Structures
1.
Amino acid sequence: MIITTIETIPGMKIKAHCGLVSGSTVRAKNVFQDFGAGLKNVVGGELKSYTTLLTEAREEAIARMVEQAKRLKANAIINVRLATSSVTTGAAEVYAYGTAVEVVKPESAV
């Protein structure tokens, strides 16, 4: 599966538009991460546990988007975007979305 944030894939032609695809996940901090983050807020520095949490959330949201695209028989997702939002205190949603397409090399395009 080709995934890109641009509107086209260099060297490829869009043969079919399969539709909008998306994936999301909501993740919450645990008590230990929250306590450690509180200490970091006092002394400064990267909140590594939150960085890891959000990295895992992005990966999960993208994986869910890819699965939806596969069900539509797409082989690429273009114009991909990621968004985050706070759902409640201590929990955030990561949302990935894009346009599922079928791409081919120009020589094989019909």
Note: The longest strand covers residues 13-28.
2.
Amino acid sequence: MTYYLIAGEASGDLHGSNLLKALKIQDKEAEFRFWGGDQMAEVAGQPVKHISELAFMGFVEVVANLRTILSNIKLCKNDILSFQPDALILIDYPGFNMRIAEFAKENGIAVHYYISPQVWAWKQNRVHKLKKTVDEMYCILPFESDFYKKFDFDVQYVGHPLIDAIENYKSTALSKKEFVANYDLDNRPILALLPGSRKQEIKIKLPIMLEAAKQMKEHQILIAGAPTISAEFYKEISQGTTIKVIPNKTYDLLNNADLAMVTSGTATLETALFKVPQVVCYKGNSISYHIAKRLIKVNYISLVNLIMDQEIVKELIQNELTPENILQELKKFTPEKRTEIQSQYEELRSKLGGGGASEKLASLLIDNLGKKE
């Protein structure tokens, strides 16, 4: 079979890489072409486009980069037609991928969407477009199946791929002693800062995080460096603060962290699965934020709270995100509070399925394609 995969962000690159591995095992004849990042490249070679050229965040940023986005869409359409895959596999990244789905459907190419667009959060009317353009939808969050049932759209829940990604990591993880030695650290507890993977969000959130972290003198401050961001970029923002950047090794950092400040998104779920107490930090472009606020239909911004349907991790959003508020929340993590939240993290993990998401998906893809031959 021939497969064309499109991931546009760091989390999609991670899940795409694990899917590629599973497809290689189950389909010995598999051929791939893809848009993605370094992790997918390790499995399947050079991407058509790297995620570093694709990640634009927020309404204002999308408008500012519209010419580049439209050029990428045109390139993608032409490349898909040239490759003529048996299956187009779209991984999250809805602003781009939903356009490509419509195009592929018009041209008789089977569309498989992995990791549902967050239509349950906003723009729920997009479900109707997804029903028309997507042959198979594979969901990773437990509440999504019920959501789609309201629209008479049958989807398949495969479980969350982060369960496997983290278990695979832990099987070869550095020991605490090795981690400390590798990064020339001392024995103080570690405060991890995860400010995001895009320059726009890092510029806004990291200075606020650092200001709060300065007051946590009993901790070492370590920043999770995104794979597409240079160390110099972080140093420019953190002038006057003694920090270390752990480049492209977020799991090493979370596996050894005692506390964390985390930007909203997949990182909140990863932090929870490593059982690290966290404060969720979100602040966006003011115009983008106020537009989104009017459209979003969910009670929480972090995946942890959305899945649990209650606030088990504190969310500091927009004007609430201040150094003082972050510090106040971090200081609430007494030994008793840590025990409580780690118990809630265990419950969260059980809600995400028993693992094997990538293998389940690969099997479903192959079965679905076989039925259409």
Note: The chain has two domains: 2-159+356-371, 166-351.
